[in-house]
């Protein structure tokens, strides 16, 4: 009898923990409901953005925080050199290339093994680079209108990108945002 009570208690606590880790999904935020606990912190690239830099924000709103010492197409936020911002023609932030220590909530970053990325995102779409090209194959993870694109060499994630799924797909297919 005591064993049955203990088992029931463990099951109830487990269910409560799973519910506590779920994030409410709202279309405005592009949030994803997940029963999997995910990491939080300043180096976590979520589907909404990283730190207080959010996808969809206008360049003018970010301008005071952008690193003006960099020239060319590498737009970065001051103090975050591991993230390169990509803006669309309408000046909205649509993607961000990111390097370690920046990582997804599930821990995937540049340098992660392909197996780690596949384990973290088992539903990722496998993308094959054109034959005889010098491009990387990819894994595309989409959740609502946002996602991650992991470009890999068959063993290791070489490039990691977060942002709107439409732009991630365009990047893989045509090189948009590659500078």
Summarize the structure.
The chain has helices at 2-20, 59-62, 114-120, 165-174, and strands at 49-50, 53-54, 83-87, 93-98, 125-127, 137-143, 146-152, 157-164. With 179 residues, it is α+β, with helices and mostly antiparallel strands.
Write a concise keyword list for the protein shown above.
22% helix; 8 strands; signal; 179 residues; alpha+beta; disordered N terminus; six-stranded antiparallel β-sheet
Please give a structural write-up.
The protein is an alpha+beta fold. It has 4 helices and 8 strands. The protein has helices spanning 2-20, 59-62, 114-120, 165-174, and strands spanning 49-50, 53-54, 83-87, 93-98, 125-127, 137-143, 146-152, 157-164. The strands form 2 sheets. The chain has a 6-stranded antiparallel sheet with strand order 3-4-8-7-6-5. The protein has a two-stranded antiparallel ribbon with strand order 1-2. β7 and β8 (157-164) form a beta hairpin.
Order of helices and strands: HEEHEEHEEEEH
The proportion of strand residues reads: 15-25%
Distance between the termini: 66 Å
- What does the overall shape look like? globular
Please state the CA-atom Rg, rounded to the nearest Å: 19 Å
Number of helices: 4
């Amino acid at each position: 009898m005591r064993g049955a009570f203990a088992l029931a208690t463990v099951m109830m606590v487990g269910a409560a923990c799973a519910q506590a880790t779920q994030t409410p999904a709202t279309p405005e935020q592009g949030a994803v409901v997940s029963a999997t606990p995910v990491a939080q912190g300043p180096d976590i690239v979520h589907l909404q953005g990283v730190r207080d830099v959010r996808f969809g924000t206008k360049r003018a709103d970010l301008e005071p925080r952008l690193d003006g010492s960099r020239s060319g197409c590498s737009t970065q936020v001051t103090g975050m050199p591991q993230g390169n911002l990509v803006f669309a023609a309408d000046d909205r932030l649509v993607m961000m290339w990111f390097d370690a220590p920046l990582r997804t909530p599930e821990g995937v970053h540049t340098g992660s093994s392909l197996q780690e990325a596949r384990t973290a995102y088992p539903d990722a779409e496998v993308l094959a680079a054109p034959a005889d090209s010098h491009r990387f194959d990819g894994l595309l993870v989409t959740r609502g209108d946002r996602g991650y694109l992991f470009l890999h060499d068959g063993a290791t994630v070489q490039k990691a990108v977060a942002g709107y799924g439409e732009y991630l797909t365009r990047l893989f297919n045509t090189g948009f945002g590659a500078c």
